[in-house]
């Protein structure tokens, strides 16, 4: 039995046209006007609605042992939340710590997602140290279809790599034809500044940003770009938060360095005053790189509009208020991270497309198509075309609502965007031709998601 999505306005990164989409066997088999309706076809009326390709979140943490606790999420809940918000594919960071085995980590993450995620998914393979086994293990991961790496320049002694390890990882990535994503902050500076602030009795969440100022991120970005340049690798800066780091990345790009730039939802809409709130209210907003001075937001939006910032992820990484309070006596103990997987599409649509002058095609590109292209998923994902997976978002631009922890699907006990108005919401979301979410509710098949195996492409 096929499915026909009828009469919507199909919006991709390149085009906009009114038409019907016919789906057979998980893929799009025809696009046109007034397509025939064979008997038994399930028809979805999309009149008055937009139809986007399923959105892709390229930066997600679901299972994450971090800062003496675990991110408060699981694949069933996070994927259902993602789907209700229009995200049909996520790429999760499989993150070993320095003491963990790379392959064990990879298998643990795969097992946790398999049979539990309701949407499709892939991984960026974390590299936390480089020893005698690393090359062989990473070759095996790439052979299994995971063709992107993740390194942290920050989080000294836990996830973080030193310069030699970064160099060797990038050399190998270049040889294997895979892209390396990087968290760019100078670990030593963060560590020294943290100790200095604590010694001065500065223990509250408002001191998190001063412990990792913009210059620290700019240095990490410059150094990563230099290493990418010298190794001939392809790099991807994750969760870029501020103008100096953007300048560093753009400077490398105009030198011809193969460097791509991601920012994430919180940095477009929240600023450091949120983390300066009293007690746990401030702790809710602790993430790294930290929320910045508000003046950076205009720079990030402009960079997104012009395509300097290519993708927008979430860095979804929820910790509840009890976990956040682990840092009540020292901001350095507050677990870093904030949820967002459910709200990225609606918030970027509202504050970008509806209210901020973000071109709707750039919106689709930044939240779906570009990630598909950079991470080897295109044209299977990231577009609406004959032969592509039928991951579709029928979007109701007339919906009006307000974000609230009381109504979210995610399992965290707060939402960092509490009270934000939204204009627009997915009314139907399909994954490979099956309706998985409707009007803010998960209505699909748990565990339907598949691991997306990819080919090296750099
Ligand atoms: O604060 C953050 N960003 N937490 C998640 C880990 C990371 O650095 O991406
Ligand atoms: Zn990070
Ligand atoms: Zn992250």
Written overview of the protein:
The protein is of the alpha/beta class and 458 residues long. It is built from 14 helices and 19 strands. Helix 4 (163-176) crosses helix 7 (214-231) and helix 7 runs parallel beside helix 8. The radius of gyration is 21 Å and the shape is globular. N-(aminocarbonyl)-beta-alanine (URP) is lined by residues 61, 183, 287-288, 315, 317, 336-337.
In short:
The chain has 458 residues and is α/β, with parallel strands linked by helices.
Spell out the key features of this protein.
binds N-(aminocarbonyl)-beta-alanine, binds zinc ion, 19 strands, 8-stranded parallel sheet, single chain, 458 residues, alpha/beta
Figure out the total of helices. Answer: 14
Instruction: Catalogue the unreliable spans.
Output: none
Tell how many strands the DSSP assignment holds: 19
Mean pLDDT level: 98
Percent of residues in helical segments?
A: 25-40%
| SSE-based structural type | alpha/beta
Distinct ligands, ions and cofactors found in the model: N-(aminocarbonyl)-beta-alanine, zinc ion
Q: Biggest β-sheet: count, sense, barrel?
A: 9 strands, mixed
* First-last Cα distance: 39 Å
What form results from the Cα inertia axes? globular
Radius of gyration: 21 Å
Q: Into which percentage range does the β-strand content fall?
A: 15-25%
């Amino acid at each position: 039995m096929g499915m026909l999505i009828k009469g919507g306005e199909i919006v991709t990164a390149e085009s906009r046209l009114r038409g019907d989409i016919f789906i057979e066997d998980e893929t799009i088999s025809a696009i046109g006007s007034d397509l025939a309706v064979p008997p038994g076809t399930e028809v979805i009326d999309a009149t008055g609605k937009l139809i986007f390709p399923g959105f892709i979140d390229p930066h997600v943490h679901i299972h994450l042992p971090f800062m003496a606790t675990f991110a408060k999420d699981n694949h069933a809940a996070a994927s259902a939340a993602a789907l209700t918000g229009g995200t049909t594919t996520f790429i999760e960071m499989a993150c070993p710590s320095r003491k963990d085995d790379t392959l064990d980590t990879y298998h643990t993450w795969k097992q946790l997602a398999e049979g539990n995620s309701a949407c499709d998914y892939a991984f960026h393979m974390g590299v936390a140290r480089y020893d005698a086994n690393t090359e062989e293990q990473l070759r095996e991961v790439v052979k299994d279809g995971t063709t992107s790496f993740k390194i942290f320049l920050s989080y000294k002694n836990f996830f973080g790599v030193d310069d030699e390890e970064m160099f060797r990882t990038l050399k190998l990535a270049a040889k294997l034809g895979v892209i390396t994503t990087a968290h760019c902050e100078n670990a030593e500076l963060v560590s020294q500044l943290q100790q200095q602030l604590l010694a001065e009795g500065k223990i509250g969440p408002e001191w998190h940003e001063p412990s990792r100022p913009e210059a620290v991120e700019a240095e990490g970005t410059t150094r990563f770009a230099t290493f990418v340049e010298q190794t001939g690798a392809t790099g991807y800066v994750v969760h870029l938060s501020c103008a100096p780091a953007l300048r560093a990345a753009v400077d490398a790009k105009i030198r011809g360095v193969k460097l791509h730039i991601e920012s994430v939802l919180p940095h477009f809409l929240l600023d450091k005053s949120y983390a300066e709130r009293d007690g746990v209210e401030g702790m809710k907003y602790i993430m790294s790189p930290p929320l910045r001075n508000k003046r950076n937001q205009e720079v990030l939006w402009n960079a997104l509009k012009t395509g300097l910032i290519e993708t927008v992820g979430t860095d979804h990484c929820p910790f509840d208020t009890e976990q956040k309070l682990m840092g009540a006596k020292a901001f350095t103990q507050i677990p870093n991270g904030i949820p967002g997987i459910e709200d990225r599409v609606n918030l970027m649509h509202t504050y970008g497309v509806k209210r901020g002058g973000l071109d709707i095609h750039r919106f689709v590109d930044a939240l779906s198509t570009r990630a598909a292209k950079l991470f080897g998923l295109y044209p299977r994902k990231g577009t609406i075309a004959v032969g592509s997976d039928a991951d579709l978002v029928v979007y109701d631009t007339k919906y009006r609502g307000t974000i609230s922890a009381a109504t979210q699907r995610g399992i965290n006990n707060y939402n960092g965007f509490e009270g934000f108005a939204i204009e627009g919401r997915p009314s139907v979301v399909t994954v490979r031709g099956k309706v998985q979410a409707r009007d803010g509710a998960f209505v699909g098949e748990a565990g339907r998601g598949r691991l997306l195996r990819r080919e090296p492409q750099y």
